[in-house]
Automatic annotation (TrEMBL):
Protein name: Probable malate:quinone oxidoreductase
Matching SUPFAM superfamilies: FAD/NAD(P)-binding domain
Statement: the UniProt record of this protein carries the keyword Oxidoreductase: yes
Enzymatic reactions: (S)-malate + a quinone = a quinol + oxaloacetate
GO terms for biological process, alphabetical: tricarboxylic acid cycle
Record EC number: 1.1.5.4
Metabolic or biological pathway, per its Swiss-Prot or TrEMBL entry: Carbohydrate metabolism; tricarboxylic acid cycle; oxaloacetate from (S)-malate (quinone route): step 1/1
GO-annotated molecular function: (S)-2-hydroxyglutarate dehydrogenase activity; L-malate dehydrogenase (quinone) activity
Record's keyword terms, sorted: FAD, Flavoprotein, Oxidoreductase, Tricarboxylic acid cycle
Cofactor: FAD
Class in the EC hierarchy, top level: oxidoreductase
Similarity comment text for this entry: Belongs to the MQO family.
Length: 510
């Protein structure tokens, strides 16, 4: 057993996209701070942030139907869509700043232009999509959106999806070309390379086992070096728990009152990946459908063109499922050990409320490959079983808490920052919209935990993120400027040329 003990300003637990983003923001705002990272796996971006473990959608509400809902009076509520889009613009600006400042290079390794489309069938859904389109298209953030219910147009937009469909079935789609495919795994690794180059001490195979607040308000963090089974003790003024699904357990270990009465519900994900290059070549978009009745919002079916490891591929899913693990590399006891005396009634209430969801997830997990192919064929009528194989994606742990509106044990589908009153520790829980909004969420962590520094930091934040604190919806000129400049910095405007370039490389490989 070693007696290694250190003191630093900041400890980041977990090497996913959230810690990578917070560390990178801190390096710009307080370069003198000493930062340590502890990650239990052997590499960064290996859990949910990994490119095979999430869908890689730059969520900006351009195609995800669950970010808009119909109000009882029949009008469309687009407030969530605006919020998610504005948050993605914040991410684009920070990534552009890092590229322009030469802190990370080759943005094409992590972000690609990719048309985003929504596709629906049936009269009711077509009417919903049309109404959604009409509500969004007058907003500057969604101005480029197109709508069509003409089969010929849809065939042009998504030939693979329209192939084999009868033209008397009502169908419609919206399309917007300024969507993106983001490789969050590559982004996380680029950010950690940058942090390591700038004296951040990144420790892999180091699992955080416990946290305790010292009498001076700092945190004592107990860490196991899993390579040689040594225990180490590290102290920091501020701790960020960015442990993905495991954040809840560590938050509970911290004992802060803000972490009480919160539970977690794990939902696993599976994709079908297409292995036939001829089929892959016929699709160039992210196409989102409508969630089935009873399905949770994170299992909205979508067919995505992805570029992973310089190879173009197609993924369909995610199929939701149930596993008690809180991480892909987690333990079968994660769910059971997350139940504590303070969240017991919350968990029991949630269990009773969510019986239909649990049944749905168990049914999903029991599906055979052929049953999954049937779901895929609702999207791609001519899909052949031999062209598709199953890929296990990441685990999402949805937050369960008591709310005023919905009562005890309510399942939340968003991302939540839980921080101590004294600002000495914060944890990130939940997984949606997730990585796309990492920059805004980490700015929220800074605002909650370092209110005394915000005034001093504001000019630098505005240099990095010109829209900081400003609504882009209400400032269309600023939006257009920012959208154009970030597209240039992130190489998103070379659209056709760039995709062709990649496709040529892929064809060479095939
Ligand atoms: C199926 C699926 C699809 C998704 N699709 C999208 C999408 O299209 N777009 C999008 O924006 N988001 C998407 N997300 C969400 C997104 O992947 C997550 O929000 C994001 O990756 C979370 O990052 P993180 O850094 O919080 O967690 P993670 O990437 O999971 O990283 C947490 C890290 O903490 C480490 N860790 C855990 N416990 C400890 C410990 N005790 N000590 C040390 N280290 C520890 C883990 O090993 C891991 O490396 C999706 C997620 C899933 C599961």
């Amino acid at each position: 057993m070693s007696n290694k003990q250190t003191k630093s300003d900041v400890i980041l637990i977990g090497a996913g996209v959230m810690s990578a983003t917070l560390g990178s923001l801190m390096k710009e705002l307080a370069p003198e701070w000493e930062i340590k990272v502890f990650e239990k796996l052997g590499n960064s971006g290996a859990e949910s942030s990994n490119e095979w473990n999430n869908a890689g959608t730059g969520h900006a509400a351009l195609c995800e139907l669950n970010y808009t809902s119909e109000k009882p009076d029949g009008s469309m509520d687009i407030s969530k869509a605006i919020k998610v889009n504005e948050q993605f613009q914040v991410s684009r600006q920070f990534w552009s700043y890092l590229v322009k400042s030469d802190l990370i290079r080759r943005p094409q390794e992590f972000i690609m232009p990719m048309p985003h489309m929504s596709y629906v069938q049936g009269e009711k859904n077509v009417n919903f999509l049309k109404k959604r389109y009409e509500a969004l298209v007058n907003n500057p953030l969604f101005q480029e959106m197109e709508f069509s219910d003409e089969p010929e147009k849809l065939r042009e937009w998504m030939p693979l999806i329209m192939d084999g469909r009868s033209s008397d079935e009502p169908t419609a789609a919206t399309k917007i070309d300024s969507g993106t495919d983001v490789n969050f795994g590559a982004l996380t690794r680029l950010l950690f390379d940058h942090l390591k180059d700038n004296n951040v001490d990144v420790n892999y195979q180091h699992s955080v086992e416990n946290l305790k607040q010292a009498s001076d308000g700092s945190w004592e963090v107990k860490v196991r070096d899993t390579a040689n089974d040594n225990i180490e003790h590290h102290n920091a003024r501020f701790v960020f728990i960015g442990a993905g699904g495991k954040s809840l357990h560590l938050l509970q270990k911290s004992g802060i009152p803000e972490g009480k009465n919160i539970g977690g519900f794990p939902v696993s994900g599976l994709f079908m990946a297409c292995s036939n290059p001829e089929v892959v070549e016929q699709h160039q978009a992210k196409v989102y459908g409508k969630a089935k009745v009873g399905a949770p919002p994170m299992s909205v079916p979508h067919l995505d063109t992805r570029y992973i490891g310089n190879k173009k591929t197609l993924l369909f899913g995610p199929f939701a499922g149930f596993s008690p693990k809180f991480l892909k590399a987690g333990s079968m006891f994660d769910l059971a050990t997350s139940v504590k005396p303070d969240n017991l009634t919350t968990m029991i209430a949630s269990g009773a409320k969510n019986i239909p969801l649990t049944k749905y997830l168990i049914k999903q997990v029991m599906q055979s490959k052929e049953q999954r192919m049937e779901e895929l064929r609702e999207f791609l009528p001519n899909a052949k079983s031999e062209d598709w194989e199953l890929v296990t994606a990441g685990q999402r742990v949805q937050v369960i808490k008591d709310t005023e509106d919905s009562g005890k044990g309510t399942l939340q589908f968003g991302t939540e920052v839980v921080s101590a009153d004294d600002g000495s520790i914060a944890a990130l829980l939940g997984a949606s919209p997730g990585a796309s909004t990492a920059v805004q969420v980490m700015l929220d962590v800074l605002e909650q935990c370092f209110p005394q520094n915000m005034k001093e930091w504001e000019p630098k934040i505005k240099e990095m993120i010109p829209s900081y604190g400003v609504s882009l919806t209400e400032n269309p000129e600023l939006f257009r400027e920012i959208h154009a400049s970030t597209a240039r910095a992130l190489h998103l405007e070379e659209d056709q040329e760039h995709s062709l370039d990649i496709e040529e490389k892929v064809l060479e490989k095939v």
